[in-house]
Amino acid sequence: MTSIFPKTLTFADFIAHYQENPRYELVDGELIDMEPTGPHETVSGKLATQIGIHLVAEQLPWFIPRTCLIYPFTDAATVRRPDIIVLDETVLNREPLWEREPVITLGKSIKLVVEVVSTNWETDYARKVEEYALLGIPEYWIVDYRGLGGIAFIGKPKQPTFTVCQLVEDTYTQQQYRLNQPINSPLLPGFHIRLDDILPR
């Protein structure tokens, strides 16, 4: 993840020029190249497919948009582009921008956010944990399929780790899972998956 644009951008600048480009997020006015790779997209694609199958099977009024941005705080020029986001269709009529742009501003619209870790692991394990908790998002999954996160976050020895962050009051409690371990989601109690199931072949 690298900052690539010399001048500070506003939310409007970002929407006008980079909304359709999946490579970029905006953080404090800086354009950030998220540097996605093929294996990263493989993991996020496999997981999104499994989540989608579960949502349909359970007949939940939730869906995974093809593209979606989170504009969490109107006083900061930050726009997040999660790898996977699950939205509650029953409350989208309260979203002020949704009719014109696929932009979410209210945490109540979001049931789940998933970030697949790449070179920007610090952001996924620290800043996004705080931002998504402040928004009130019930669950946040961090899929560190290469074990890139710092030892303080995933332990030693470093290894592939799937972290389920569950919102309790205004803070996330975290449960970690390794290879060959069934993952438990309080939000999706009938959802059965292991990290092994979504790794690149």
TrEMBL record:
Q: Which residues form a coiled coil?
A: none
**Top-rank taxon, per record:** Bacteria
Instruction: Using the record's annotation, list all stretches that form the Putative restriction endonuclease domain.
Output: 13-194
- What's an example of a GO molecular-function annotation for this chain? endonuclease activity
Keyword Ligase tagged: no
Q: What keywords were assigned to this record? A: Endonuclease, Hydrolase, Nuclease
Q: Does the keyword Nuclease apply?
A: yes
Protein's name according to its UniProt entry: Uma2 family endonuclease
Q: Which organism is it from?
A: Calothrix parietina FACHB-288
Q: What is the lineage of its organism?
A: Bacteria, Bacillati, Cyanobacteriota, Cyanophyceae, Nostocales
